[in-house]
Amino acid sequence: MAKSKTSSVFFCQKCGYESAKWMGQCPACREWNSFVEEPITRHTGGSSKGITGKASKSEEPSSLSSIELNDEERFGTGIGELDRVLGGGIVPGSLVLVGGDPGIGKSTLLLQMCRNLANEGRKVLYISGEESLKQIKLRALRIGDFTDQLLLYCETDLALIEATITKHKPELVVIDSIQTMYHDDVASAPGSVSQVREATGILLRLAKTLAIPVFIVGHVTKEGTVAGPRVLEHMVDTVLYFEGDRHASYRILRGVKNRFGSTNEIGVFEMRQNGLAEVPNASEFMLSGRPENASGSVVVCSMEGTRPILLEIQALVCRSNFGLPRRQAMGTDYNRVNLLMAVLEKRIGKSLSELSSCDAYVNIAGGIRILEPALDLGIAMAIVSSFKNKPIDEKTILFGEIGLSGEVRSVSMGEQRLAESAKLGFTTCIMPRTTADALKEHHALVKGITVKGVSSVDEAIRVLFS
User: Fold this and answer.
1) How does DSSP classify residue 412?
2) Which helix (H) or strand (E) holds 85?
3) What DSSP designation does 75 have?
4) DSSP 355
5) Were 191 and a residue from 47, 60, 107, 179 both cysteine, which residue would form a disulfide, CB within 3.0 to 4.6 Å?
């Protein structure tokens, strides 16, 4: 007969590395003071059963040609922006993690998805470990009418949850949230490293064996990562993060990991009284409220996956009152802004020689965070515009990457960026010369918008401010 032996191990809270003793620095992710002690229960006595008490089932290897697929593997959620981020819809048997700040709208979005699927006749099981049935219904009444195909279940015991899923065999399962789930065979408290790992492992096995897609909600820490070990993100198929200020109306759903689609796609939502509404024209939404004839303001075009988005970059440059000038960046990389300012000071000459003694503040309006190098030209020109106190024409848009020599390098998807700019009414586009020449060669220029190619930062300044 197998006996249970209780012991403890140490886990890294950042990456899930396991060690028999405590260490000051994790050898895997190099984080300091990240190890926590967790009790575990190991089974001895020759049994091959795992923690769930079921023997593992072995199968013969299959050749790739013997595996059959059909065109109806995915099914839509009824929310176009969510389908875009997922890569075209939900894949049966996939495990999806949805993270975000408290109150950002994770549960609301998943409940809306459950409503759409239930209205299509699909059986959906919504499991909550944080709210009662009456609390869920109060939130559901705000969203709309639901059919009887949506089943609600309030439970945190994984053994009961596993039995319920196996019995009802729904077409979709939502777990809200993974930090509240526990298994009796794990001695640690719910939300601990051991419990989160075991809960995710059980849900992963259920999703793969029963071909049921499972969505799990994960709380985030103050650093913005999912609470618990990073191994949770490695175990799931897709990781989605909700971004944005919960006190503002907009929400951005970003795919961080996706085994079935692109990881660069984003979905834009607006929080309303009856739930989250899709924003099909994200560019127009991001540019709303843009000031007129203001120095330091410029519009750039960024690519998020296959989707071009127009953004306003704002810069404010003023003389510093201290010996060490202050630099601040919101929505983009702080070090990238310092690098671009160094390029301007070194490559332009005397006209920007006093820039090194000025405070500089750069902001991407709308609260979105973009790290694409194609924003370099827009950031640099916004800084120059504020420094010279000369506004850039409102109908001009820019994009391009800047190198350390001051050259403007080509970026991808120039045709899509140009088409989106023309659709929003811009008449002039400043882009890298190599990109402009490639568009002319392939006859990809858009009628109604003038393209000006530049090869250096100095040339871009002459085109905009001469």
Assistant:
1) S
2) helix 80-86
3) B
4) G
5) 179
- Rounded to an integer, what distance in angstroms lies between the CA atom of residue 9 and that of residue 345? 54
pLDDT score of 6: 56
- Residue-wise over 5-32: b if at least 16 C-beta within 10 A, else e? eeeebbbbbbbbbbeeeeeeebeeeeee
- 147-168 burial: b if 16+ Cβ within 10 Å, else e: eebbbbbeebebeebbebbeee
Question: pLDDT digit string (tens) for 288-331?
Answer: 888 888 999 999 999 987 889 999 999 999 988 888 889 999 99
Q: For domain 285-465, give the CATH number.
A: 3.30.230.10
What 3-state class would DSSP assign to 219?
strand
| Helix extents (H) in 169-275 | 193-210, 231-235
Buried b (16+ CB within 10 A) or exposed e, 391-408: bbebebbbbbbbeeebbb
Give residue limits of the domains in the chain. 3-44, 76-280, 285-465
pTM for the model? 0.78
464, two tokens: 């905009």
Question: Tokens standing for 153?
Answer: 């279940």
Instruction: Report the distance separating Cα 358 and Cα 348, nearest Å.
Output: 16
Q: Give the Å distances, CA to CA, from 300 to 247, 304, 421.
A: 26, 13, 9
Task: Name the token pair of 428.
Answer: 């002039």
pLDDT of residue 174: 97
DSSP string, 250-297: EEEEEEEEETTS-SS-EEEEEEETTEEEE-S-HHHHHTTTPPSS-TTE
Q: What is the pLDDT of residues 406-457, one digit of tens each?
A: 999 999 999 999 999 999 999 999 999 999 999 999 888 888 899 999 999 9
d(CA 6, CA 280): 54
Spatial distance between the Cα atoms of 426 and 215, rounded to a whole number of angstroms: 41
Consecutive H or E run containing 464: helix 457-465
Q: CB of 19 within 8 A of CB of 35?
A: yes
**In the predicted structure, residue 282 carries a pLDDT above the cut 80:** yes
Section 282-289 average pLDDT: 86
CATH of 76-280, one of 3.40.50.720, 3.40.50.300, 1.10.10.10, 3.40.50.2000: 3.40.50.300
Residue 353 corresponds to which tokens in the numbers above? Answer: 């020689």
Measured at the alpha carbon of residue 52, what is the angle toward residues 47 and 54, in degrees to the nearest 5? Answer: 55
